[in-house]
Structure formats: structure tokens, C-alpha cells
């Protein structure tokens, strides 16, 4: 059974292949150097919370949460931005364990809840819904992309 815990700076090198696998899933070009720099910055700045699933010293999956706030409810919310389980470790309950850890963390922090967005084809939707996540059907999400400098 995998142990879910907060990532440590010493986990960076083991996280890089998982982050690259996650990026590949979303059709991004491999860039281990940039992934390493990104992880180093997140872990040093502590501007996100990274959870890892570990079994016998090997990282099998990760999840990254970013803090945000709701002005309407006047409460903190967490954005579940990334969730990935290595292909060799899927169907073992690791994704579920990571999501439950996020829910527990959210409760411990006294936050309103967790938000996430995912691709419409992502099969993980069934997992989210089985753990009480509700699909947003009452609002649209927009994104503005800054042009290259």
C-alpha cells in the first residue's frame, strides 16, 4: 500500500519523471530541465503543496495543490492543479489515496473546498465523482493567454 505524504525538496529528482509523464499526457514536449527548475522553485517558494504516493522508497504518483480565495464566500479554496499516477501503478487505488489526502488537507486547513479542471476525455472523471466531486454545470471557465514577448 502506498503512503501519501507531502513532498520534500529531496524528492525533486524522483518527481521529475512523474511530472514529465503528466506533461506528456497533456501532449507537452519533454523538457526535464525545465520540469526540474519548476519543481525546485515550487518546493523552495512553498507556493504550492505537493503530495506524493510512495511505496518502498519509489514515488508512484503526485498531486499539486495551489492556494486561492473566494471573495464571494470569503474563504480559502485550494486548486487541485495536477494529479498523476505512473502507468505501472494505476488501478491500485493510488489516485484515490491522493485525492482523499487532498480532501483531508482541505478540511484541516478550514478551507471551503477544492476545485479542479480536467480534459473532457480524461477517464479520471469517474474517480472524482465517486469521491463526491460535482461537475460544474452552472458556469463557464475562460482563459486568457498572454502573447509571447
UniProtKB/TrEMBL annotation:
InterPro entries annotated for this entry?
Acyl_CoA_acyltransferase, Bact_Acetyltransf, GNAT_dom
Kindly give the SUPFAM superfamilies that the UniProt entry links to this protein.
Acyl-CoA N-acyltransferases (Nat) (SSF55729)
Please provide the record's keywords in A-Z order: Acyltransferase, Ribonucleoprotein, Ribosomal protein, Transferase
GO cellular component, as recorded:
ribosome
Molecular functions per Gene Ontology: acyltransferase activity, transferring groups other than amino-acyl groups
Q: Does the keyword Nucleotide-binding apply?
A: no
Name all N-acetyltransferase domain ranges.
Answer: 2-149
Write down the Gene3D superfamilies for this protein, in alphabetical order.
Answer: 3.40.630.30
Note the Pfam families from the entry.
Acetyltransf_1
**Record has Oxidoreductase as a keyword:** no
Q: What is this protein called?
A: Ribosomal protein S18 acetylase RimI
Give the organism the record lists: Robiginitalea myxolifaciens
Amino acid at each position: 500500500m502506498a503512503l501519501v505524504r507531502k513532498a520534500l525538496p529531496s524528492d525533486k529528482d524522483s518527481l521529475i519523471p512523474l511530472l514529465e509523464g503528466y506533461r506528456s499526457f497533456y501532449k507537452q514536449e519533454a523538457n526535464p530541465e525545465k520540469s526540474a527548475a519548476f519543481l525546485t522553485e515550487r518546493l523552495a517558494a512553498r507556493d504550492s503543496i505537493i503530495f506524493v504516493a510512495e511505496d518502498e522508497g519509489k514515488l508512484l504518483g503526485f498531486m499539486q495543490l495551489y492556494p486561492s480565495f473566494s471573495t464571494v464566500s470569503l474563504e480559502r479554496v485550494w486548486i487541485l492543479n495536477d494529479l498523476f499516477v505512473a502507468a505501472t501503478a494505476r488501478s491500485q487505488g493510488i489516485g484515490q489515496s491522493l485525492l482523499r489526502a487532498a480532501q483531508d488537507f482541505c478540511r484541516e486547513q478550514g478551507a471551503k473546498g477544492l476545485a479542479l479542471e480536467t480534459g473532457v476525455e480524461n477517464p479520471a472523471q469517474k474517480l472524482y465523482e465517486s469521491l463526491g466531486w460535482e461537475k460544474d454545470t452552472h458556469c463557464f471557465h475562460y482563459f486568457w493567454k498572454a502573447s509571447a514577448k
